[in-house]
Design a protein that fits this description.
mainly alpha, Hypothetical protein af1432, two-stranded antiparallel ribbon
Length: 270
């Protein structure tokens, strides 16, 4: 019976809501709760002046409707791309700044979880949405420009690669340029979170962030992780690696090669 109902739902496609406001209001209860929980996923205001992930997602959804009004996959990618941030949210103990490393993996899992709801809308392609969500961090210039061609090939080879580039160029940046209808959503729908909807964060120029900021942020994180590993007991680490965890050796070797390549380029650049 469930399969029959699912088949009927897939055959009777709905049109995607025509605005960011109506999309958010029409979300399934569970998905809406996940979205609004992102209020607590704070962001580094140097790069995301919106202040938290919820406001950032709403901005990106609004941009998607503006730039890609007839592309439900871009709109869905805008909705889902950062939903994994609350699950991966942490505070860096040294910088006291928020982080959400690996959030795109969790976000992809949410796409799969709500597959039936996504596929109820005409024109949606869950595989394409997953591709956009999974790679939206890799395509950022600070990461993409340092990536080896071999790693770029499977990403570039996807038919939706141009959309992925557009996602970064037109949608996924910082900024608080919220339309009045989005402000209304925050004021009304955030009441049950006990949040003061009037506190919308600073109004900063969307182009104020350094294009390659993630390069330096990643370097700091790599340095901290290396220091953390080196602080462990070497014999215990050796025993752990020998106990069926050879994958860690492969990851470390790959990371070493990548870092050496970048370091050599920067030291010998003309």
């Amino acid at each position: 019976m469930k399969d029959l109902i699912r088949k009927i739902l897939k055959e009777e496609k709905n049109l995607l809501p025509t605005s960011a406001e109506t999309l958010v209001r029409s979300l399934p209860t569970e998905l809406k709760d996940i979205l609004f929980s992102q209020w607590d996923a704070k962001q580094n205001q140097k790069w995301h002046p919106e202040g938290n992930t919820l406001k950032h997602i709403l901005v990106v959804i609004k941009r998607a409707y503006h730039h890609y009004p007839d592309d439900p996959n871009m709109i869905m990618a805008a909705l889902f791309h950062d939903l994994g941030k609350m699950d991966t949210y942490a505070i860096n103990p040294k910088t006291s700044l928020p982080t959400a490393y690996g959030h795109e993996k969790e976000s992809v899992e949410y796409v799969e979880k709500f597959r039936d709801w996504i596929e109820s809308f005409e024109g949606t392609d869950v595989d394409e949405i997953k591709y956009l969500v999974k790679n939206h961090m890799k395509i950022k210039p600070s990461t993409w420009n340092q990536m080896r061609d071999k790693k770029k090939e499977p990403i570039e080879g996807n038919p939706a690669f141009d959309k992925l580039v557009g996602f970064t160029d037109k949608l996924d940046g910082g900024g608080t340029n919220l339309a009045e209808q989005i402000r209304k959503i925050l004021k009304e729908d955030l009441k049950y979170w006990g949040v003061d909807g009037k506190k919308m964060g600073p109004k900063l120029d969307e182009d104020s962030k350094n294009e390659n900021y993630m390069f330096f942020q990643n370097l700091k994180e790599i340095k901290e992780n290396i220091e953390s590993i080196l602080s462990l007991d070497e014999n215990e680490v050796d025993n752990t690696l020998s106990d069926g965890h050879g994958w860690a050796l492969e990851h470390m070797a790959t990371a070493k090669d990548d870092i050496e390549e970048v370091a050599s380029f920067l030291k010998h650049r003309k």
